[in-house]
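Handout, page 2. Input:
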Amino acid sequence: VDDDCRVSALLHQYLEAHGLRVDIAPTIQAMWCRLEAHRPAVILLADGLPDGNGLAEVPRLRQHDGVGIIMLTMDAAPDRRCLGLDLGADDYIAKPFHLAEVRSRLHAVLRRVGHLRPEETPPHSFGGWTLDDLQGCLVGPAGKRVTLTDKELRLWRELAQSPGEPIDRDRLSCRIRSLPWEPDNRAIDVLISRLRARIERMPRLPEIIVTVRTKGYMLVPDGR
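Output:
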């Protein structure tokens, strides 16, 4: 959903060439008309549109179960991204963007909302640890149970939504603390360290929750 015809045409051509079916809507009104006809797997939604701000439509779009939402925006300030994520957006992409990045982020959201083939859905075991969501704990290879704090649980869920893909500190901070990440704030790093100490064989040489330089943190799925 974007009124920039050049951007829409580029995305349409590139994504369809990579096997995705794409529909274009230049306005919010056109988007809702399309949604009455069929439900997409993911909506790429610009914030500044001729008939309103796309961000304001996110809470209403969230009522459509199973639809992913990725914001396309010129304003990617941390507080703006946090607002969008809190309202229900799955991801943010700043303009100008690389087409390959859009495709990768689309695939990540598709996995989260369950629109990829079953063999492509995120695995639930990492280093032999499986989340018992009902009890709020991790169950280890030998049956050991580690009870998670509320923030640890949210951290694990966020990382587990994109297995094998790094999640940057800003997104983690927005999701877990509802605050934009600041370079001098190590709250996320401390939370990662505490969780590593509880599940890694060698926390200083982590194999489950790894750091990806300049990109953030990543959960390594079993079998990789």
